[in-house]
Amino acid sequence: MNRSVVRTLVTVSLGVAWLAGTGAALASIQLQKKARDAGYPATNCMYCHNEKLPKKGAATFNDRGSWLRAEKDKRKAKEVDPAWLKDYVEKK
User: So where are the chain's domains?
Assistant: First the structure.
């Protein structure tokens, strides 16, 4: 193969790998935006997580995040729906 073909393949491969690695972050940002659009004060990741910027597979959840994950399992949903927050009761 000539150099331009190899360079193109490497560039495309790196782009695909980067997009695959950002899937979880994009989903979190989308959930955060949906929650804000529904009127909830989800200004950053710490609305549901204990970290400012959680990493895939290493995230810890606060009470709200744990409750949302439990609701996801209970409802056998594919992903968390921020609309469920209407049923969440804040702990004092």
Answer: 24-87
Residue pointed to by tokens 């744990």: 66
* Number of continuous H segments (helices) and E segments (strands) in the chain: 3, 0
Nearest in space to 28 (alpha carbons), one of 6, 58, 7: 58
67-88 mean pLDDT? 95
5-29 residue pLDDT tens: 657 655 655 544 444 444 444 457 8
3-state SS class at 49: strand
The 8-class DSSP code of residue 31 comes to: H
Rounded Cα–Cα distance for residues 74 and 84 (Å): 12
CB atoms near residue 48 (< 10 Å):
25
Whole-model pTM over 0.70? no
